[in-house]
TrEMBL record:
Keywords: Hydrolase. GO terms for molecular function: phosphatase activity. It holds the Pfam family SpoIIE. Residues 3-137 form the PPM-type phosphatase domain. It comes from the Bacteria. It comes from Streptomyces haneummycinicus. This is PPM-type phosphatase domain-containing protein. InterPro entries: Bact_Sigma-Reg (IPR052016), PPM-type-like_dom_sf (IPR036457), PPM-type_phosphatase-like_dom (IPR001932).
Amino acid sequence: MFGHGLRSAVTMGRLRTAVRNFSTLDLPPDDLLARLDDVVIQMNTEAGTCEDGIAGATCLYAIYDPVSHSCAMARAGHFPPAIVHPDGRAELLDLPAGPPLGVGGLRFEAVELELPEATQVVLYTDGLIEDRRRDVGWV
C-alpha cells in the first residue's frame, strides 16, 4: 500500500484476504494479479476521493512446485526477488515489472523458472531497501 497508518493496514488486510481466496482457484500468477488489480480498483471506487489519495500496492506472487522445482512468478510494481544459488551466488531475477495494483488496464506477465534443489528465493518488502535520501532505481 502506498502510505502508512491505519488505512494502509486495513487495505493490506483486505488484499491479503483476496490473495488467499484467489489462490484457492489455482490461477497462474499473472491472472491472480489481474484479479487483485480489479479488487484495488473496486476498493478505490467504493472509497471515493479521500485525503489519502488513491489506494495502490505493489505485489509479487509466486507459486513453487517442490516436486518439479518449478517456480512461476509475476510482479505488480514490486521489486524482483533475489535468488541464492546452491553455490552461494546471489542475483536479482529479471522479471517483467508490471504496473502497481490499482492502475488498471495493463497486463501482468508471469515467468516460469526451474530452480535447482537447495536454491533459495529471497522475498523482501520495499520498506527494507527504501531510503528517502537514496534512489532505489538500481533494482
